Amino acid sequence: MAPSAKLSPGEEKDFQRDTTKISDLVLLDEISSKGITSELSARYRRGEMYTCIGPVLIAVNPYKLLEKQGSIYRDGVARFYYDKTPLEVTPHVYSVAAEALKGMRSKRQNQCVLVSGESGAGKTETAKQLMQFVAIISGGGATLEATKQQLLDSNPVLEAFGNAQTVRNDNSSRFGKYMELSFDFKGDVEGGTVSNYLLEKSRIVGHGAGERGFHIFHMLTLGADAKLREALSGLGAPPAYAFLMNEDKRVPKVDDAKEFELWKAATTSVLAGIGYDAEDEREVLSLVAFVLALGELEFEDHGDDRAATAKDPSKLERAATLAGLTGGALGTALTSRTLSKRGGRSSVQMLDAAEARLTTLTLAKETYKRLFDWVVRQINQAILPAHAATSIGILDIFGFEIFDANGFEQFCINYVNEKLQQYFIELTLKAEQEEYAAEGVPWQDIEYFDNKVVCDLIEAKKPTLGVLALLDEAGAFKGADTAKLMTKFDQQLKGKFGGHFHPSTNLNLRTTFTIKHYAGDVDYKADDFLDKNADSMFNDLIDTMNSSGAALPKALFEDGRTAEERAKRPPSVSVQFKGQVNELMAALHACNPNYIRCIKPNDEKKPGLAVEDRIDHQVTYLGLVENVRVRRAGFAFRMEYGAFAERFKMTSAATWPVVPGDARAASVAIVSAVDPAPRLKHVAGAAPPPLEETTGYVLGKTKIFIKEPRAIFALEGRRNACLARVVS
Q: CA triplet 348, 350, 351: central angle to 5 degrees?
């Protein structure tokens, strides 16, 4: 990616911060949900999608491809933001990316960027822009350029398998992704790794009205040419498949056939270096077609022996061929189950038609999930860095979900969002107040909702079991059902955990319970919790797929378990997911965090339309009011004395051209030059004065703190004027 020309002075002006306008919500006169919503809405209607709260970026989804305007995402803009501080420029995703990259390079400290918000708020596109910025700013060279292109091309590869159209979002991520970009000792990107979380497996076998299955299903069935269709045993178009709800749904302005060609090119670009070829591509697509073919299978009972058979043997044979199996082997695996007994003995249990159908759905979901995991592993193998020194992680994960009907998937999604909100609270609101205490800076605590109690309600193991532990406990007993699970919930959770759990009092909704989340109350239907939490694969299915004559399905279902492990109950979905969440949180805690809060302005996906009720709800549950209050009550700016003196040394004769040895004294000289009578409070080592007296500059133990953003703008203005005189 060749460097582009710098922005012209006129172009630079478009991105320089105008101190007469409010782009930082800390400057608002009215600190309330209404005031913040009104300002965000007004800015959005003017075409200003980005706003900030200090270092936290607020991004309102523009619902249009801004890059096609040749405007705010071109290379010159990225380089301009990298050369400036956040105080000098308008809010932008590139400003967050620049601070993360500069912090990593200068401090050798791993960084992460948390992109959060509800479904359809623009998280995935924002994450792409972060990656694009890194690609622009990183160094050149053929090898490095190839690595950067691989990282960028991994996005469409993953989106094909993990994204789908929903009622709220035409390209909704139905899995969580943590992309860790790795850098060498020079600070240039040299590879990365991808971690994926909680793929929405239920979407593989069906979806809601007005939605679609995963993109790859539609891309393949609409984009395959005649030769490929023949190779895939007569692949049909979307209306031919039950898993696609027998409908041919098109996403507006998206050509699935064209996207299929782009996916093939991107996959080859990413994986060619590890030997991925046309045969690998055929096997991948054959398994996608196999999953769709499983959805076409129907079963019927024969006699009283529970023995089910396929209604249409030709459909069974076609599905089996796509997976490298015989129709007989696949049919046996779908209609019977081997039961292990003591002493190494076993018996075969025949399944009825309903059980065979459920087994088929389980195989379809597990095959697709394992294929998706395989794709992620191949990408990681292809982009694995050789000698990573530091990293920047980008978290793009499903936003909080509240639907008319919320099941196990929404519960898991909202659980991880509670954990991320807890992380945000700890690393912004708590950390801000703790920093003031450590520096001896006067401070009055700001109240905010600490959602730890909700996290405990979901994940606690002692002294009281939370929802996940109770779910696993109930699932361990034979004959467990939803009624027994709800009884257990009522007995163990009602009246505890701060009243954030409420069973339904409606007799017609006895399988429904409510959790008071930080984002609002959510009613969950527990009918599917036990089944989806177990989601167990019979050993017969694993063994049959592993016997395939095709390399890929055989590899996907390779079983390295011992006989003893095969006999045990496999870990539940919630146990596996909780482990993944804990790993993610550990990774985030090892990094310096940067935040982007995405907001969905309307449900119609219309550019320029700001529905204030929708925005206000998100402002509330994202905790933006508390965020502004903490920032406003505290200090908008803080910097270590040495760095402060070096940046502003040209503003004072006492510090120009060389900063004297005492950086603290130099900092005082600088603010005195800008403000002849600065309201300085030397608080380190002394009792803090009342907060109302500390309205100017405060000297902490190691940093200078500036309360008013306008004072920072005055400093920056004097610095720019002095630099202009030096240059002239």
A: 135
Annotation says 172 is catalytic: yes
Catalytic one of 41, 110, 116, 119: 119
Strand partners, 406: 524
Residue 3 lies in a domain: no
The last residue of one of the domains, among 503, 533, 563, is 533
Distance CA 587, CA 583 (A): 6
Is residue 416 assigned to a domain?
A: yes
| Given the residues 147, 173, 336, 504, the one annotated as active site | 173
Candidates 159, 180, 401, 439; catalytic one: 401
Same domain as 529, residue 412: yes
Is 401 in the active site? yes
* Catalytic choice (61, 95, 155, 172): 172
Domain total of the chain: 2
User: Of 505, 533, 561, which residue constitutes the final position of a domain?
Assistant: 533
Centre a 10 Å sphere on the Cβ of residue 593 and count the other Cβ atoms it contains. 21
In this predicted model, what pLDDT tens digit does every residue of 410-422 receive, in sequence order?
999 999 999 998 8
pLDDT, mean of residues 218-233: 96
Catalytic residue flag (residue 343): no
Q: Tell me how far the alpha carbon of residue 233 is from its chain's centroid.
A: 37
Quote the pTM value.
Answer: 0.86
Model confidence at 611, pLDDT cuts 50, 70, 90, reads very high
Domain span at residue 701 reads: 636-727
677 is in an annotated binding site: no
Respond yes or no: is residue 124 known to be catalytic: yes
| Statement to judge: residues 412 and 526 lie in one domain | yes
Q: Taking Cα atoms as reference points, which of 352, 360, 386 lies closest to residue 147?
A: 386
Alpha-carbon distances of 182 from 270, 384, 399, 656, rounded to whole Å: 16, 9, 26, 38
Q: Is 121 annotated as a binding residue?
A: yes
Q: Give the CATH number of the domain where residue 498 resides.
A: 1.20.58.530
Per-residue pLDDT tens over the stretch 287-312: 999 999 999 999 999 876 678 999 99
* 421 in a structural domain: yes
173 given a catalytic annotation: yes
